[in-house]
Design goal:
Mean pLDDT: 81
Shape: globular
Radius of gyration: 17 Å
Strand content: under 5%
């Protein structure tokens, strides 16, 4: 992953597409490191993503390429990163900031609702998790994900 990242950012002025891809690599590495409980590595790549996002913000969109490395996408990854690191409070803080409407597709919003419900379940808030899921899924699907909540 580091090699792929380095190739994407090795030019003196990487293109918006290269920065976008590099940021997504950084998020993926951070999330993977968090799953492996490698907190220092996860935080390192999370910080790297912040830098890449700032660099990308100064690049205009073009009609052929929509940036994947948007604020909502970064926030969504941070929820999972901190949840896997066992920092449920930070995951919940990111979840509270996430605007599901900012995500590009209905499918992505539904998956994000599940991702934001997980730290609520970890914190023992099954009713809150169900409410979160209900915003983007039919109630029957939400009950399957959160079967023991008070409806």
């Amino acid at each position: 992953m580091q090699e792929a990242h380095d190739r994407l950012t090795s030019a003196s002025r990487p293109t918006a597409a290269e920065l976008d891809a590099a940021g997504m690599v950084e998020l993926t590495v951070a999330y993977t490191a968090a799953q492996a409980h490698e907190a220092a590595l996860a935080r390192h790549f999370e910080d790297a993503t912040d830098q890449t996002t700032r660099r990308l913000a100064h690049r205009p969109y073009d009609d052929a390429h929509r940036h994947l490395l948007a604020a909502a996408q970064c926030t969504l990854y941070r929820i999972g990163i901190h949840r896997h690191l066992g920092d449920v409070d930070t995951a919940l803080a990111h979840a509270a900031r996430l605007d599901l409407r900012a995500l590009p597709t209905g499918e992505r919003r539904a998956r994000a609702a599940t991702d934001t419900a997980r730290p609520l379940l970890d914190a023992g808030d099954s009713a809150g998790a169900f409410d979160q899921l209900r915003r983007s899924r039919p109630p029957r699907q939400a009950r399957r994900v959160v079967p023991r909540c008070a409806h």
